[in-house]
Amino acid sequence: MSDPQALAEQFDDLGQQRHAAELGMWIFLATEALFFGGLLLGYAVYRHLYPEAWFAAARETEILIGTANTAILLTSSLTMWLAVRAGEEGRRDAVTLALGLTATLGAFFLGLKAYEYYLDWDNSLVPGLRFAFEKADPEHAEIFYYLYFFLTGVHAVHLTVAITAVLVVLFLVRTGRLAYQQSATLTVLGLYWHLVDVVWIFLYPLIYLPGRSQ
Amino acid sequence: MNTIVDAQGSGSSGGSGSHSLPRQAERGVGREEATSYLTAGHGVKSWLFTTDHKRIAILYALTITVFFFIGGAAATLIRMELFTPAGDLVSAEGYNKLFTLHGVIMVWFFLVPAIPATLGNFLLPLMLGARDLAFPRLNLMSWWLIVIAGAFVLYVLVMGGVDTGWTFYAPYSTTYSNGYVVAAAAGIFVSGFSTIATGLNFIVTTHTMRAPGMHWFRVPLFVWSIYATALIMLLATPVLAMALLLIMIERLLGVGIFDPALGGDPVLFEHLFWFYSHPAVYIMILPGMGVVTEIVTCFARRRIFGYQFMVYALLSIAVVGFFVWGHHMFVAGQSMYAGLVFSFLSYVIAVPSAIKVFNWTATLYRGSIVLDAPMLYALGFIGLFTMGGLTGLFVASLPIDVHVHDTYFVVAHFHYVMVGGMVSAFFGGLHFWWPKITGRLYPEAWARFAALLMFFGFNMTFFPQFILGWMGMPRRYHEYPSEFQVYHVLSSAGAVVLGAAYLLPLGYFLWSLRYGQPASDNPWDAKGLEWRTASPPPKHNFPSTPRVDEEAYDYHPPRRPPGGHLDHPSDGRPAS
Predict the structure, then answer these.
(1) How far is A183 from A188, CA to CA, in rounded Å?
(2) Is the ipTM of this complex over 0.90?
(3) C-alpha closest to that of B285 among B426, B165, B146, B411
(4) What residues pair up with B36 in beta bridges, in sequence order?
(5) Domain annotation covers residue A159
(6) B79 touching chain A per CB within 8 A
(7) Which residue of B14, B246, B268 is in closest CB contact with A13?
(8) What is the pLDDT tens value at each position of chain A, 214 positions in all?
(9) A153 touches chain B (CB under 8 A)
(10) CATH code: domain of residue B508
(11) How many separate domains does chain A show?
(12) Is B256 on the interface with A (CB under 8 A)?
């Protein structure tokens, strides 16, 4: 028996509504890919123009924190998937637990990221505000750090939105206000979470790994 | 042939089967008395927070009308300044601010939302036989976003303007300009989210909410044009958003990602900007093509010639449109090989555009043509778009572009496409669907006069600019050698006529709201689901979900045009 709240009035049935919600999220993800795509194009251009500055600058990034964050975010994708799976099976407690874990892991990521920004500030690696780079070609290294802050900053904004969404859904599921088994909410939320994760998988090698082999 | 079979109980296809629930009953297909969407709620709040796509369309229409007249006021001042060769009305800097304001407002706050967010919003669910768009609250949000974005632009206007041109080229915008670049860019950034939300809603609605029987090749070409437009909105706008965000931060923090003095690459900005802004040109013309298709078929009483080719032409313009941006940068230091490729691709995109023009013309052949106001606008569109398109080939050609780049030739070219094309189509669509939207008929004689006036006023304004540009008058100058004056005077005089042609419909449309004759459900005897419901439509569009069992534009039996002559006598078989 379906929950009456699950069906919005413009749709004929739940199948149509699910289809619309999932298609909508996939299309939104396509726009997200182009948001980051434009920035990565900029990255590629300057990486090609100033490889020396790029390697020198990337070697100064906090690779330990970056790697730990990669592990944390990948794990959160697993817990997100578990939440979606539990939702399909109608296991409310499992959904809330998995969503709680997901949000916690996301918060850990942001915490570590904030600490990393703090270290960057300490090392005078913040373009425009406090930048003093000793190694090769500081002018172009500043562009690297500008892109670094821009890319990770936009990513962090996305992750913050994602954590907020997870917490809202967690609250709705827990209080029984969301027909999570019939609606596409968990699937759509999962898609968005995985996108945030996938973006990071591209950012990690681009930011932390250049120049490390030398 | 009756297309709408009463599909009683559209809810019966629903898996829930819970007809007693209040929500289901509220949909109450069939029994719901047809109170129009205009009277379905009262008070300002019922408008500002409505989720009804038809009311949101009206909100959009009012908003962009305001912006159209602000942008138009800037254009008026520009034409007044150019009346004489000396810079006597405004300073050079003031002139820069005027054309920037004109460009920014007309592009992002009028042309991009013009047809999609007003006519598209109103008609897409109606044409598909749906109760609303897939995401009504998102639709409302997109209107609020453009209002917020508009507030940024009005702030810029009040504080003293911005002088970078609508293109925000770096490093001028990031380093040297004294205007309110950040606020203007922020406004456009926010309006981009509005565009993305609208496009997403349209695509999902078209995919998932077509009425039973409306398979993909029965979808009206207006919907196809909106669909193709939405694809561009979704895939191009994010890149502009990021480029403008980079500009804003570079300007605020002084970090050089585009400024060459700081190690940046200004051409990168041009690439990112035109990767959006060339496809955006197609955002500003494809919906017009859709409107014209609906009008031409109705007023020629004719099936569209080559329906499937029209669909593929729309989609290929949308796709190829993403690969021609470099023709804006032939003289920007781009590699000559890139220039060759972009030049070639720009020729390629002329092919589907030409297919559309030929097919409209072929649709008229043996039609039973009625020259009412919407048709006059549509025919004006075809002529002006053809001129805009053909001069597009001039500027797509490398050697000619080097000669006419940044001259009035380019200005005239894109005004023929955007103003001659899109604005004509917008006015044609407004007249065509006015009875449906408001339930009133507009005064036909005045409307025909306004349509003709617009055509003549437009040509008088912009044709001299082709000659000016060819003679070498560069764009964006507030004073000029006196040998150009005769063309500038002609152009300014034409602008007066054009301005009158824009004000006239505003007058008689408002008049018709009160004094116009009440419209029947289908005053044009047109095909399409939107004409099968009341004028104005009820809140949920149709008393019951319509069922479609005929092709689009079924104005006459196949191969039997009005008048009884066969299209292809060899195919002729006696009518059964």
Answers:
(1) 9
(2) yes
(3) B426
(4) B538
(5) yes
(6) no
(7) B14
(8) 344 467 888 898 888 999 999 999 999 999 999 999 999 999 999 999 999 999 999 999 999 999 999 999 999 999 999 999 999 999 999 999 999 999 999 999 999 999 999 999 998 888 888 888 887 788 888 999 999 999 999 999 999 999 999 999 999 999 988 888 888 999 999 999 999 999 999 999 999 999 888 7
(9) no
(10) 1.20.210.10
(11) 1
(12) yes
